[in-house]
Amino acid sequence: MSASERNRFLVRTDEKAEFNQYWYSAATIALLVDEAREFGTAVACVSTPSVFFSLKDRTLMANSRVFDIDEQWASTPEFVRYDYKEPTALSPDLRGSFDFIVVDPPFITRDVWELYAQTVRFLMKPGARLLLSSVAENEAMLHELLGVSRVVFQPSIPHLVYQYSLFANYESPRLGARNPEIPED
């Protein structure tokens, strides 16, 4: 059985070009979920449905939300319709509600990240842990916007033509290790 077959989200959910969706590999999703389980009690999965729907822990899922524009998940109680062009057009009761936030925007430009940063600041509790996905070239910008630094672990995104990096505002042994799915340079 392949790793993707063990991840129900990957088996059941096709990427949609109109939303610029590219799913992480099953192993990368597993690592992101492990981070969320270890460090979060209320997780905001912003444009990261693959992470949310792989959480499995019912209590953690009930305390967490998936923020996405793709309404195929609208029947899920934890779904929050999210359009990054309206970064804080969210229910006021979500303000400061999340201690772990994972973000993977559909675009990597500064203007898009500035909007996502507004959303992150709206959602995060004081001291929240942040885990972001973007290109390595955005390191200085992401540090400026959200105080994150690039980590060693690089996510595998099988259908994306260029390599992403992860950025975090905390340390973790998992994030400090190389991803064996990514070839060494």
Task: Give me the secondary-structure topology.
Layout: H1 3-6, H2 8-12, H3 26-39, E1 43-46, H4 49-52, H5 58-63, E2 65-68, E3 79-81, E4 98-103, H6 110-123, E5 124-134, H7 139-146, E6 149-150, E7 165-168
Parallel strand pairs: 1-2, 1-4, 2-3, 4-5
Antiparallel strand pairs: 5-7, 6-7
Describe this structure in words.
The two termini are 29 Å apart. The longest helix is centred in the N-terminal third of the chain and has 14 residues, at 26-39. Helix 6 (110-123) packs parallel to helix 7 (139-146). Helix content is 30%, strand content 18%. Residues 1-5 have low confidence and may be disordered. It has 185 residues and is α/β, with parallel strands linked by helices.
What's the gist of this structure?
By secondary structure, the protein is α/β, with parallel strands linked by helices. Helices cover 30% and strands 18% of the residues.
